[in-house]
Write a structure and sequence with these properties.
alpha+beta; 3-stranded antiparallel sheet; 17 strands
Length: about 550
């Protein structure tokens, strides 16, 4: 079976066990098709910015990752727990007025007006008239509504803010409408008992898994990382391949992202959420004994440390880049989505025979994505890319049907039938929600696979993805040759761009290497890089690709 980190007891056999699904057994708990791209980042930063606990060791909210000594000596059978604040008052204040009328329960509307009255009566709100006071409140409401991130079609409490600052990052809250209606809930005090904060329907553990992958990478021995860096020719700097340096740099980088906006915004958010009505936050963020309410993380495959290391390095480079906060969040969202796709492929390749047999034709993680030009002008390249998508899906499909996983599924079937429970084959759900259809859906969401609907799915790159690749495989302020750039993209993501790598992709997915491939297959890549302003032409045969977003050079 797959080794897991942390080494906790898996919940596989019981009827409601979270690890029952064969895809979760392979990829970790869990990547899920219903979790959107922005919510992957929100949940990752939620864990990073919250107070955490490993066994009896408490970590403050300003501590992004556990100490290296603790990571390397992680207690056996101990989870990572974190305190996810609900931000219920802040969400109500910002989102209720823009939510659908049918989602506004009477108790919610009453508390919304009470919040506004409490804010209006505050001595700190100094204005000359009642009209001006109302206008200030409306401005504040519009201000925080402007930070609405995802979930605008949902009930107000299930929405999320853009994770610009720590104070805007809250956990998931679900209003249990049917139960509240049956109980004839009237006031806000009673309504608080009908919010669920642990269902994880939208913040569905994907961000937790990404966080654990980085923790898993940071706990590896430096000698092991050095060996893999040399073997895979990753070109990592001393800082990036030394766990102590990478840990500190990433800690500072993510803290910098969370502190990029003026502190006044965070103080306002805290004041609205818990300053005028502390009882709500006490009810949602504390347990019945008055202790912080912890959310328990799942696990990731222990062998995923390699892709976890690449993810950590890419995040560091994006955090160090001199770009505005909103653009950085967009880049970090792509990074999270690309990491999910890479993780699905890398982990699948470890458990299927044919990718390993063709390993020399692939990147260091043993898979290839053959990318075609966005317009699809080359029919041969389009066909190769379509075969590449099909091969990736087949690999993921085969991986979750590994004999060891099938044996566990067979045991589950015996247990269920012995208990008189109806047996439902889990593979349909595994393929659709956690397996190859998750890969295809997520890739389409970020534009890596087109078309969004219909047949003929193929890999492409759009301007946004190409910009991300430049900023994630090249350190800020540095430049590499165009040939080196293509090699780094192949090393990090298995992305094949030129005729040589496209030929290897053909062999990897079982086709014959075509001899008719045009040696100028990647001309469209050069055009896109040139249009983006990151290509420096030295001669007809030599060009440089640069990452110009160096914050240190620009004094940022």
């Amino acid at each position: 079976m797959v080794k897991h980190f942390p080494h906790i007891s898996l919940e596989m056999i019981t009827h409601r066990g979270q690890d029952r699904n064969p895809a979760i057994q392979l990829f970790g708990r869990r990547f899920f098709v219903d979790q959107t791209v922005p919510e992957l980042l929100v949940e990752f930063l939620l864990v990073a910015s919250s107070a955490k606990k490993i066994g009896n060791t408490l970590l403050l909210s300003k501590q992004v990752f556990p100490y290296l000594d603790l990571l390397r000596a992680w207690p056996d059978k101990v989870h990572l727990d974190y305190t996810a604040k609900a931000c219920l008052n802040l969400k109500l204040f910002a989102f209720l007025g823009a939510s659908k009328l049918e989602t506004r329960h009477q108790s919610h509307r009453e508390h919304y007006h009470k919040l506004r009255d409490l804010l209006s009566s505050q001595e700190r709100l100094v204005v000359s008239s009642t009209a001006e006071r109302t206008e200030v409140l409306r401005t504040l409401e519009n201000l925080f509504l402007g930070f609405q991130g995802v979930g605008s079609e949902r009930t107000w409490c299930a929405q999320s803010f853009l994770p610009l600052i720590r104070e805007l990052i809250g956990g998931e809250s679900i209003w249990r409408e049917t139960r509240a209606k049956d109980a004839n809930v009237q006031g806000w005090g009673d309504a608080l008992d009908f919010f669920s904060h642990n269902q994880q329907l939208f913040l569905a553990r994907g961000g937790e898994l990404l966080y654990l992958q980085i923790c898993n990478a940071l706990r590896q021995e430096e000698s092991l990382i050095e060996m893999w860096n040399t073997k895979a020719d990753l070109g990592l700097s001393k800082q990036e391949r030394t766990p102590e340096c990478l840990h500190k740099a990433l800690e500072d980088g993510i803290s910098g992202v969370l502190n990029a906006c003026p502190k006044t915004l965070g103080k306002l958010a805290t004041f609205i959420d818990s300053g005028v009505d502390p009882e709500t936050s006490k009810h949602t963020d504390k347990d019945e004994n008055g202790n912080p309410r912890f959310t328990r993380c799942g696990w990731c495959p222990a062998e995923s440390w390699q892709e976890g290391l690449l993810f950590a390095v890419e995040l560091l480079r994006l955090c160090d880049a001199a770009v505005d906060p909103i653009e950085r969040l967009e880049l970090l969202e792509i990074a999270c989505a690309m990491q999910v796709l890479r993780s699905l492929c890398a982990q699948s390749a470890r458990y299927v025979d044919w990718p390993q047999a063709q390993g020399e034709k692939a990147g260091p993680l043993a898979f290839v994505w053959a990318v075609s030009d966005p317009e699809g002008r080359d029919s041969v390249l389009k066909q190769i890319s379509r075969r590449s998508v099909s091969a990736i899906q087949r690999m993921i499909y085969d991986a979750i049907r590994h004999p060891d996983i099938r044996a566990v599924v067979a045991q589950q079937e015996r247990e269920d039938r012995a208990c008189g429970q109806k047996w439902v084959d889990p593979y349909k759900e595994a393929d659709g929600r956690y397996g190859y259809k998750l890969f295809l859906t997520l890739a389409k969401r970020i534009g890596l696979v087109v078309p969004k609907r219909g047949t003929g799915a193929r890999f492409v790159l759009n301007d946004r993805l190409l910009r991300f690749l430049v900023m994630s495989v090249i350190r800020p302020g540095e430049r590499v040759t165009y040939e080196t750039f293509k090699k780094l993209v192949f090393t990090h993501y298995g992305i094949a761009l030129d005729s040589e790598k496209i030929g290897q992709a053909c062999e990897w997915h079982g086709a014959t290497r075509l001899t008719m491939l045009d040696g100028n297959l990647d001309a469209w890549v050069v055009e896109m890089l040139n249009a983006s302003g990151v290509l420096i032409r030295l001669s007809d045969s030599c060009s440089l690709v640069t990452n110009p977003f160096d914050g240190r050079k620009n004094g940022l």
